[in-house]
Design brief:
single chain; about 150 residues; Arc Repressor Mutant, subunit A; 9 helices; globular; DNA-binding; DNA binding; HTH_HxlR; Helix-turn-helix transcriptional regulator
Length: about 150
Amino acid sequence: MKTKKHNALRSGCPVNVVLETLGDAWSFLIVRDLLFRERKTFNEFLHAEEKIATNILSNRLQRLEAAGIVSKQRDSDDTRRYIYRLTEKGIDLAPLLVEMVVWATKHEKTAMPPALVQQITGNREAYIADIRRRRQCELPASCCPDSR
């Protein structure tokens, strides 16, 4: 049975579902920044090298939050600011983004340092597990004794 959410999609094809959920390069770059670069605030995303416009950044953060990929909460140090974090659903995108990195570094010239490429390609599973562990420690109600 189709859910209401799937009725809005062009098709139930898994590739289409991912593309319609993430939708564009900006959404992937925001997830990248949360996953790999530990950026968490609007201004940190805004100052990434790709130079996203403020209105597009606002829109994509809202879409990612509505899709359950990111969550936001007020910064306890500055209540005018929000902290964005990946949800479990967002963390589950780690293997997809790692494979995008592997593909790009294999077929195109990138700015990624060769040592990091080797670290990722040498043991993808360990790299992904480490990313997952670090991001899961940021989830509310998470208890990560080994993150001290």
